[in-house]
C-alpha cells in the first residue's frame, strides 16, 4: 500500500534498533534508550526543512558566513504518556524547543480518544509544531490531538511516531491530509483490540515498566 502522507525513515540503524525494541525480552531501560535513539533519527528527517538564516561569524582563523536556525522556536507536543519517550530524543536535537502536552486516553469500548489535559505554549501562530506518539494505531488519538492543536493555528504541523499501520495512516490522512507523518516502519495491521501487529505491545507500559 502507498501512503503519500508518510515518510518512513529507512535506515539500517533504525531497522536494527526497532527490531530490538520489538523483542519481548528487551528490558525497560533498553526500550527507553532505543526509543530516544530512534527519535533522534526520526527528528532528523522531520526537521529537514527548518528555516535558516545566514550569520556572520569569526572562527579562530577567519571571518566567514554560517547558518543559524531562523524563526520562532519549534514546539514539540507529546501525547501523554508514551509520547514522552519520543520527546526526549527530539529535545536532544533541538534543546531550545518549547514543549506542550496533550493528555488523551483511549476509550476501551469505542477506541475513541478522550482528552483530559491540554497545555501548550502561547502564540502557536507561525510556529512549527510536531505532535508525537510512538504508536499510530487506530489513529484516533493522533487525529484528536492534531485537531486540538490546529485550533491554536500553528504555522505548520507534523506527526512523528515510531510505528504506524495502514488503518492509522488512512484515518490520519482522511482527517488531516496536510499533516506529514514520519515513522520508523509501517506494520501489517491492527488487531481487534486496536493493537498494532506485529508491533511491540503497549508502548507506554514498555517505556515506563508498568506492565
Ligand atoms: N498503543 C500501543 O501502545 N500499542 C499498540 O500496538 C497500539 C496502541
UniProtKB/TrEMBL annotation:
Reactions catalysed according to its record: UMP + diphosphate = 5-phospho-alpha-D-ribose 1-diphosphate + uracil
Cofactor: Mg(2+)
Domain of life from the UniProt record: Bacteria
Annotated coiled-coil segments of the chain: none
GO MF assignments: GTP binding; magnesium ion binding; uracil phosphoribosyltransferase activity
GO biological process: UMP salvage; uracil salvage
Positions annotated to bind uracil: 196, 201-203
Cross-referenced Pfam families: UPRTase
Enzyme class: transferase
Gene3D superfamilies assigned to the protein according to its UniProt record, in alphabetical order: 3.40.50.2020
Cofactor: how bound: Binds 1 Mg(2+) ion per subunit. The magnesium is bound as Mg-PRPP.
E.C. number(s) listed in UniProt: 2.4.2.9
Cellular component, GO annotation: cytoplasm
UniProtKB keywords: Allosteric enzyme, Glycosyltransferase, GTP-binding, Magnesium, Nucleotide-binding, Transferase
UniProt: 5-phospho-alpha-D-ribose 1-diphosphate binding residues: 81, 106, 133-141, 202
Pathways involved: Pyrimidine metabolism; UMP biosynthesis via salvage pathway; UMP from uracil: step 1/1
Signal peptide: none
Regulation (activators, inhibitors): Allosterically activated by GTP.
InterPro entries registered for this protein in UniProt: PRTase-like (IPR029057), PRTase_dom (IPR000836), Upp_B (IPR034332), UPRT (IPR005765), UPRTase/APRTase (IPR050054)
Stretches assigned to the Phosphoribosyltransferase domain: 8-210
PANTHER family: ADENINE PHOSPHORIBOSYLTRANSFERASE, URACIL PHOSPHORIBOSYLTRANSFERASE, CHLOROPLASTIC
UniProt family annotation: Belongs to the UPRTase family.
Protein name, per record: Uracil phosphoribosyltransferase
Taxonomic source organism: Corallococcus coralloides (strain ATCC 25202 / DSM 2259 / NBRC 100086 / M2) (Myxococcus coralloides)
Amino acid at each position: 500500500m502507498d501512503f503519500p502522507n508518510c515518510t518512513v525513515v529507512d535506515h539500517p540503524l533504525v531497522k536494527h534498533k526497532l527490531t530490538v525494541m520489538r523483542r519481548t525480552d528487551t528490558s525497560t531501560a533498553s526500550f527507553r534508550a532505543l526509543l530516544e535513539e530512534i527519535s533522534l533519527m526520526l527528528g532528523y528527517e522531520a526537521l529537514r526543512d527548518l528555516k535558516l538564516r545566514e550569520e556572520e561569524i569569526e572562527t579562530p582563523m577567519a571571518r566567514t558566513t554560517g547558518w543559524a536556525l531562523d524563526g520562532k522556536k519549534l514546539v514539540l507536543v507529546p501525547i501523554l504518556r508514551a509520547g514522552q519517550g519520543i520527546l526526549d530524543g527530539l529535545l536532544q536535537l533541538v534543546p531550545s524547543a518549547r514543549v506542550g502536552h496533550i493528555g488523551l486516553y483511549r476509550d476501551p469500548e469505542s477506541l475513541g480518544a478522550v482528552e483530559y489535559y491540554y497545555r501548550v505554549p502561547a502564540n502557536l501562530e507561525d510556529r512549527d509544531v510536531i505532535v508525537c506518539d510512538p504508536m499510530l494505531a487506530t489513529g484516533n488519538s493522533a487525529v484528536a490531538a492534531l485537531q486540538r492543536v490546529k485550533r491554536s493555528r500553528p504555522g505548520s504541523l507534523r506527526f512523528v511516531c515510531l510505528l504506524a499501520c495502514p488503518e492509522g495512516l488512512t484515518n490520519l490522512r482522511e482527517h488531516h491530509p496536510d499533516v506529514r507523518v514520519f515513522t520508523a516502519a509501517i506494520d501489517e495491521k491492527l488487531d481487534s483490540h486496536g493493537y498494532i501487529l506485529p508491533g511491540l505491545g503497549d508502548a507506554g507500559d514498555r517505556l515506563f515498566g508498568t506492565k
